[in-house]
Design goal:
This protein is an alpha/beta fold. It is built from 16 helices and 12 strands. The strands form 3 sheets. Strands 4-11-10-9-8-7-6-5 form an 8-stranded parallel beta sheet. A two-stranded antiparallel ribbon has the order 1-12. It is globular and about 60 Å long. The structure holds ligand FNR. The site of ligand FNR has 26 residues, from helix 2, strand 11 and helix 16. InterPro entries: Aldolase_TIM (IPR013785), Alpha-hydoxy_acid_DH_FMN (IPR012133), FMN-dep_DH (IPR000262), FMN_HAD (IPR037396), FMN_hydac_DH_AS (IPR008259). This is L-lactate dehydrogenase [cytochrome]. One of its GO terms (molecular function) is L-lactate dehydrogenase (cytochrome) activity.
């Protein structure tokens, strides 16, 4: 199985599955409860069809978009995901570099495994978002916001769908934890996945990555789900966020908005963007797909705030459908994580390149020369 054999999402996923130890693969691949929302995220794109136009002179197409004041060369960005150096030793470094090459934004997770300053430096030619969670430790929240400001991060992104941990049963079964530890069952898994282990031996002397956010976990080891429940503040309200928006005084978006009412409140408190997202199905199972909520929310607030969506994006046509319904851009998560795990930066670049190629081809087949020409006229629901 070589990188050149990977032509789509499913190929990269299969390659990642071969290379990664079971607990790590399942951490990426899994979601909450019965994983119904995870599946629906992708099938929701199949509820509607594209209606192309012809003979429009499409020898050149412009894939760029402007979102939250940032010009992106492509209508997608790399959504923040945790613990990337566990998937490949380059982790966030590889993703930041690949995003930079494609002229798009990289969202650094506050559960990241390189410092946000280093990621900012690597992707300095393109905008960077810093995703953070509202921790019970208010001092930590202030310190992280200050670091992001000092590092010159363009977009602050507060994730609001994770104030308690989603029920990720695959992680319960495998014992996946942060900081990452090997238990006996895990060791057996690692013995049968030597490529991953060798990668660490060669490059990191088998030092497993640590979190950049120096949270005091009392020396403990916990599941990601327990981390959310114990470290994040479920008492967070709109007033807390309004204060943060004022303090940041720049581009600020909420990640995990799903209702029209909340989208309107985000506008009221001065957010400049909202990300419709169910966290890749990893939090509330049974939650609606972002794509299914998109039209309603774009109609309600699309002229006052930039609407982005993520979840289930695997194809250029998914991106075009989202833009046609009113999204300014889409986020991708697993779409770049499997390639990262499979082949590091080369994998991420190949995957992002394929998505861009598909978007250019599909725009030509749709008869649109720029992303701004996509509209509801290009879509029909069944
Ligand atoms: C995530 N996601 C996420 N979101 C966030 O705000 N902070 C985080 O640290 C993480 N970590 C994370 C880890 C992994 C392994 C996955 C798969 C996802 C959610 C992510 O930003 C995005 O919302 C989803 O991944 C989008 O769904 P797809 O593209 O993976 O289907």
């Amino acid at each position: 199985f070589r990188l050149t054999d990977c032509h789509n999402f499913h190929d990269f996923r299969a390659m990642a599955k071969r290379r990664l130890p079971g607990p790590i693969f399942n951490y990426i691949d899994g979601a909450a409860d019965d994983e119904t929302t995870l599946r629906r995220n992708t099938t929701s794109f199949e509820q509607c069809d594209l209606v192309p136009n012809i003979l429009r002179g499409v020898s050149e197409v412009d894939t760029s978009v402007t979102v939250m004041g940032q010009k992106l060369a492509v209508p997608f960005y790399c959504s923040p995901t945790a613990l990337q150096r566990l998937f490949h030793h380059d982790g966030e470094r590889a993703v930041a570099a690949a995003a930079g090459k494609f002229g798009t934004m990289f969202g650094v997770s506050s559960l990241g495994t390189v410092s946000l300053e280093e990621a900012r430096h690597i992707s300095r030619a393109t905008p960077q978002a810093y995703q953070f969670y509202f921790h019970k430790d208010r001092g930590l929240n202030r310190a992280m916001m200050q670091r992001a400001k000092d590092a010159g991060v363009e977009v602050m992104m507060l994730t609001v769908d994770s104030i308690t941990g989603g029920n990720r049963e695959r992680d319960l079964r495998t014992g996946f934890s942060i900081p990452f530890r090997l238990n006996l069952a895990g060791m057996l898994q690692f013995a049968v996945k030597p490529a991953w282990a060798l990668n660490y031996l060669t490059h990191e002397s088998f030092k497993l990555p640590q979190l950049d956010t120096h949270v005091d976990m009392g020396g403990g080891v916990m599941s990601i789900s327990r981390y959310f429940t114990e470290m994040l503040d479920p008492a967070m309200t709109w007033d807390d966020v309004a204060l943060m928006v004022r303090e940041w005084n720049g581009q600020f978006c909420l990640k995990g908005v799903m209702s029209v009412e909340d989208a309107k409140r985000a506008v009221d408190i001065g957010c400049t963007g909202i990300i419709l997202s169910n966290h890749g199905g990893r939090q509330l199972d049974g939650s609606r797909a972002a794509f299914d909520q998109l039209a309603e929310i774009a109609d309600a607030v699309g002229d006052r705030i930039d609407v982005i969506m993520d979840g289930g994006v695997q194809r250029g046509t998914h991106v075009l459908k989202a833009l046609s319904l009113g999204a300014k851009a889409v986020g991708v998560g697993r779409y770049y994580l499997y390639p990262l795990a499979a082949a590091g930066q080369a994998g991420v670049e190949r995957a992002l390149g394929q998505l861009r190629t598909e978007i250019v081809r599909d725009m030509k087949l749709m008869g649109v020369r720029s992303t701004s020409e996509l509209s509801r006229a290009n879509l029909r629901f069944r």
